[in-house]
Amino acid sequence: MSSNQLSDSPKEECGVIGVFAPNEDVARMTFFGLFALQHRGQEAAGIAVADGAGMSVHKAAGLVSSVFTQSVMEKMCGHYAIGHTRYSTTGSSSERNAQPFMIETINGPLALAHNGNLINSAELRNELMQQGVGFSSSSDTEVMTMMLARNGGATWEERIKHAMQKWIGAYSLVILTRNGVYAVRDPWGFRPLCIGLLPSGGHAVASETGALQTLGCEAIRDIKPGEIVALSNNALTVTQALPPVTPSAMCVFEHIYFARPDQTWDGINVHHARQRLGEELAHEMIKGWKEEGRQMKESADVVIPVPDSSIPAAIGFSRISGIPYNDGFIKNRYVGRTFIEPTDSLRKRGVALKFNVIHQNVLDKRVIMIDDSIVRGNTMGPMIKLLRNAGAKEVNVAITCPPIAHPCFMGVDMGRYEDLIAHNRSIEKIREHVGADSLYYLSAEGMMKALQRTDGFCQACFTGRYPISVDFSNVKTGFERGIKS
Ligand code: SF4
Q: Which of these, 191, 182, 187, lies nearest to 165 by C-alpha position?
């Protein structure tokens, strides 16, 4: 049983970090930055370090704290480093696909760590294989690394720029060379990447501002879509390698679910955005219930979140609806982050391995349960059952985004129509399937109102309108399944 089966939210692919800090213990800084990005991937972790002459890498399956021991860290010396935490779908592929990827090139050693997914990687991989290049993994990151190794150009910026012209899809990258660190973001801006100034000089770049704050960074800004930024001690060297696509297409799930609540992108703080998602949901649901002849305040007793990501939304929902907030579930944060398989009898307990109910808070109550999303619909039903077994009189489910009816090809693990419960199924059918008394989803308009923007976000999994044209027969999920089997 993987963490996958114990949660019905989308699964993020990775977190990345890069540090340029001559005279500092960059490996240790990268370790602590990765620690702050652990929520973005718990299956594998890696760090590559360069010292101006050579490069070394250490990576393995497991949590950051178990992959990097004191003795490993002592051997990782240098001034420049990149790191990666990985989420992947199968245990066996974790080691092989762990990042950073490191290779020797004609221009010196090169390492790369990637958050995202190229939708044309199968095509690019085939091209390289035709030219005699072999691969050791099923990862598109290896394809990107090989392309950089083979590209001509006088500088790494030129080689990266050349490759970006061929890459289609989501990529927030950190690249390590013998004597430099580069940050690269795709022109759509699908995945986040931000940069800050270290207190001792030098710079750090990471998927989330929380990791930069851990390192004491100041003057934090987003890497803009289409940019290559060479980290340095003082001024950054910024190259606008490709024109940014307008409007940009940042993954809206970063705000709904993936990111830590302390994260702020483009002036939007995640915690506050989630509170507003709950407020908008309450406004819409009060209206909907009224049309059905129900006054919400008299028809429900308690608002409970599915921890942790839905806590701010439940607070916002309670504030607008006037229905008291309380904790209903206690989450074991460590289940799903273990590689020990449960026994058959434990496996049957399903979500009960991860969540316990505070009976006194739901007994004889009409509950409104707030969650961030339903992807496959496998865990929502058992969670509702847990509440009913604890004596809840009614379980009404409210979701802080619209139904996920289309796959994602840009780096989130929901790549097939047949896996999505909302594909070709009405909300009423989903309600029946999960066994809720009622089921509400926030509208796309309400979601954007909560994010205080009219555009700038990818919403393709709700709408089916992809920011890039997708050839469904040739996307990466297809070749990955082939390789992994
Ligand atoms: S399709 Fe959905 S999950 Fe994928 S990038 Fe777009 S918003 Fe994010």
A: 187
Q: Structure pTM?
A: 0.90
The tokens for 152 are 């001509």
Q: Are the C-beta atoms of residues 404 and 375 closer than 8 Å to each other?
A: yes
What is the number of residues in the chain?
A: 485
Beta strand pairing status for 394-399 and 438-441?
parallel
Does a structural domain hold residue 419?
yes
Q: How far apart are the first and last CA of the chain?
A: 18
Task: Tell me the two tokens of residue 119.
Answer: 């939708």
Domain range enclosing 180: 3-249
Q: Would residue 462 count as lying in a domain?
A: no
Do 71 and 111 fall into the same domain?
yes
The CATH number covering residue 274 comes to: 3.40.50.2020
Q: Do residue 124 and residue 240 come from a single domain?
A: yes
Q: Label residue 424 left, alpha or beta by phi (over 0 means left) and psi (-120 to 50 means alpha).
A: left
Q: How far is the CA of 251 from the centre of ligand 1 (A)?
A: 5
pLDDT digits (tens, 9 = 90+) for 223-253: 999 999 999 777 789 999 999 999 999 999 9
Identify the pLDDT of residue 152: 82
Residue 343 has pLDDT above 80, yes or no: no
Domain with residue 90: its CATH number is 3.60.20.10
Tell me which residue has its CA closest to atom 8 in ligand 1.
Answer: 251
> Using a 6 Å cutoff on CB, does residue 252 contact ligand 1?
yes
Report the alpha-carbon distance of residue 298 to residue 151 in Å, rounded. Answer: 66
Q: Are residues 373 and 444 in the same domain?
A: yes
The number of the ligand 1 atom at minimal distance from the alpha carbon of 252 is 7
Per-residue model confidence (pLDDT) at position 10: 63
475 band by pLDDT with thresholds 50, 70 and 90: low
Q: Quick one: which of 330, 327, 380 has its CA closest to 355?
A: 330
Q: Tell me the CA–centroid distance for residue 460 and ligand 1, in Å.
A: 6
Q: How far apart are the C-alpha atoms of 17 and 175, rounded to whole Å? A: 10
**Is 14 among the catalytic positions?**
yes
pLDDT score of 281 more than 90: yes
